[in-house]
Predict the structure.
Amino acid sequence: MTSKMKCTWLFVCLLTLAGCQAVAPWEREVLAKDEMSWTSDPLGQTLEQQVHFSKEAASGGLGSAGGGCGCN
Amino acid sequence: MSTSIEVRTKKRIGEGWLLGKMVAFLAGALMSASVLAVEIGETAPSFTIESLNSDETVSLGDFKGKVVILDFWASWCGPCLVAMPKLSALSDALPKERAALVAVSVDTNPKRALRFMKKMGATYDSLIDPSGEVAAMYNLPGMPTTFVIDQDGKVAARLVGFKPGDEAELEREVASLYDK
């Protein structure tokens, strides 16, 4: 592969980075909807997590607080 | 011989041009992503937007000379559920001639925002920013975000998120600015 081709490929790869866009906190209206959450049964998931944490003696690492709305 | 050097030089110039373009592209992308939020001590960006509760338009400049609590909220934001009744009580307690609560909803649907306010029994009016233009000017770091703006239009405090007890902190901050 010539260096020009390498540069072209690198440029194409950089172009794809433009697709990585953070959603601003005030634009998370759709993400905050119930149907956008990872689970359809939040209560059941909380129960499962409780069991999992108790068994593993460790917790966390399953997501951030506040759900999809990005609220603190 | 000289032709070969010329070709190699042109090739190098071409590669340099391509690399320069890529660096410029990357720098542009990074710069556009790192717009800074409005910080304490900075002048609060002025705006004129429509009221949610009437057909009027309201400007931040209308409150010049008063201490302003500028609260960005949304009906889909969990902590705003907690904040609204507390801010209602705070708004009622504010001396109207010295301070004002200016709420700005970032809901895209004004009717939903209005319904939410009625449901929560809000005692203050709100403005509506459905395009998020004002929110973008302030580059909110989270929802809700509340700014305390002094009489000169400078940001004196910024509160990101809301938990019970924050209203007392806001009240203290506002009161400390009355005799500024």
